[in-house]
Amino acid sequence: MARWHAPRSNDGNGAPAQGSVFDLPGWTPTREAALAQLRRVDPRAYGRTRNSLDGAVTRLSPWITHGFIDLPEIVDSLRARFRVNTDDKLVFELAWREFFHHVWGHQGEDILRDIRAPLAGVEYAATLPDDILTASTGVPVIDATVRQLYATGYLHNHQRMWLASYVVHLRKVAWRAAADWLYGHLLDGDLASNHLSWQWCAGTFSSKPYLFNADNVARYAPALASQGTAIDAAYPALDELARHGRDAGPESQRPEGVEIPVLLGVAPAGEFAELDARAVNGRRIALLHPWSLKRPKQVDLVIGVLHAPFHARFPWSERRWRFVIDGMRQLADVVWCGDLATLPAALDAADSVQAVATLNPGYREALDDERVELVDAPRFLDDPAQPCRSFSQFWEQVARAT
Ligand SMILES: Cc1cc2nc3c(=O)[nH]c(=O)nc-3n(C[C@H](O)[C@H](O)[C@H](O)COP(=O)(O)OP(=O)(O)OC[C@H]3O[C@@H](n4cnc5c(N)ncnc54)[C@H](O)[C@@H]3O)c2cc1C
Predict the structure, then answer these.
(1) Is 189 in the pocket of ligand 1 (CB under 6 A)?
(2) 136 lines ligand 1 (CB under 6 A)
(3) Residue of the CA atom closest to atom 19 of ligand 1
(4) What is the value of pTM for the model shown?
(5) Cα–Cα distances in angstroms (integers) from residue 40 to residues 49, 293, 300, in the given order
(6) Ligand 1 site, residue 193, Cβ cutoff 6 A
(7) For ligand 1, atom 49, which residue shows the shortest CA distance?
(8) CATH 1.10.579.10 assigned to 1-261
(9) N or C: which end of the chain has fewer CB within 10 A?
(10) Is the minimum distance from the CB of 169 to ligand 1 under 6 angstroms?
(11) Ligand 1 centre and the CA of 193: distance in Å?
(12) Which residue has the least CA distance to atom 22 on ligand 1?
């Protein structure tokens, strides 16, 4: 599990030095690494400590997002080792992921727009201010979170919630702009979990804005305590600020900013295959996309595919590109990059073509082709046919059936 160090000040303002707060191991893009991490997960410790930044969270999300392991096998593995049921916190959190995908399945790209009206009368900026982007707001918990994001591509759930609440409600940035930015830097960036969580914090996918304060940070992340800053207020005052306030701005005492890592809208230079009709002729082909990185069985040729228009629209950090392309190269015989809409026709000579269904825009439409045999993405819970508007509605239906 992550070791959590007290921040070392490097600038006299109490801000932690870059990379000093969390000593997180990297994520190796292999199934073996994911399974090794899964074996370390203890749902009892998770239930007791998961809210703390140094709690026993699983850190499985980069592997889950990219399909190295799936939720049914995680739940099976937990059940084989522990007495686990639907009351377990970990099962409940895994269910949130399936709920967000349920909503995505019904609403498609509408999840990228306000699901409910935003707070009336508040003006939100279309871009993030430099002090947030460079981790120099002067609020220790926010600056440490942004530094950690850039240094590792991973954040604990509480950090994500605090960051979203600060950015939207205190700094008055439109949730969509901030969600796109966070998505690009996360190793586990998932359009449904990310954008719907931002909407949940913003109040456009929940009944009220999500608020937090310095006492909450002191409880779950004492080393990042942020007393004396804009977040050091009582909840009624924060609610008033969220609904009627203006951009609180950065603190007067601020650390020096960090460099902002670039987000790349094209795959980093590397070898990509051309598709050769002779190579596919009469063969059973599997297409692996970035969310299905698991070696399929009983096929003759595995082609890793990167749909360039999706990536131009949702750029990724170099770290995430490396994670995905390295993982894909180990599983696929060749990796292809281009407009996926042209691919099924190029595979006409194949005996069969299979792929795992995905909801990611562009990939979803291109793979929905009669020549491609689509396998459903694995779920551990039922996917109710009728759209559920809230997690509790979803949970009531699926937990009953489990
Ligand atoms: C603003 C914001 C943005 C987020 N963006 C993403 C994202 O892009 N990708 C992503 O996978 N999760 C996202 N989450 C949800 C959650 O924060 C992460 O799944 C979790 O922190 C990943 O770390 P972990 O694997 O150690 O989680 P654990 O706490 O160990 O949970 C185990 C697994 O359960 C699932 N899970 C847990 N909590 C949630 C949740 N609240 N919502 C959905 N799934 C959950 C994840 O698959 C996670 O890997 C976001 C949450 C917020 C508040």
Answers:
(1) yes
(2) no
(3) 61
(4) 0.94
(5) 15, 22, 34
(6) yes
(7) 61
(8) yes
(9) C
(10) no
(11) 7
(12) 61
Contact criterion met (CB below 8 Å) for 67 and 356? yes
Q: Would you say the CB of residue 194 lies under 6 angstroms from ligand 1?
A: yes
What are the structure tokens assigned to 321, written together?
A: 């590109």
Span(s) in the chain for CATH 1.10.579.10: 1-261
Residue with tokens 């809208």: 265
**Displacement of CA 108 from its chain's centroid (Å):** 17
pLDDT per position in the chain (402 positions), as tens? 222 222 223 232 323 333 334 556 789 999 999 999 999 999 999 999 999 999 999 999 999 999 999 999 999 999 999 999 888 999 999 999 999 999 999 999 999 999 999 999 999 999 999 999 999 999 999 999 999 999 999 999 999 999 999 999 999 999 999 999 999 999 999 999 999 999 999 999 999 999 999 999 999 999 999 999 999 999 999 999 999 999 999 999 999 999 999 999 999 877 788 887 788 999 999 999 999 999 998 999 999 999 999 999 999 999 999 999 999 999 999 999 999 988 877 889 999 999 999 999 999 999 999 999 999 999 999 999 999 999 999 999 998 776
What SS3 state is found at 4?
strand
- The beta-carbon contacts of 286-289 under 8 Å, at least 24 apart in sequence, are 286/353, 286/354, 286/355, 287/343, 287/353, 287/354, 287/355, 287/367, 287/372, 288/328, 288/331, 288/332, 288/355, 289/355, 289/356, 289/358, 289/360, 289/363, 289/367
Task: Indicate which residue's Cα is closest to atom 43 of ligand 1.
Answer: 97
H or E segment to which residue 316 belongs: strand 316-317
Nearest-CA residue for ligand 1 atom 46 is: 61
Ligand 1: which of 97, 183, 210 to mutate, most ligand atoms within 8 Å of CB?
97
Place of tokens 């596919």: 280
Which amino acid is residue 216, in one-letter code?
A: N
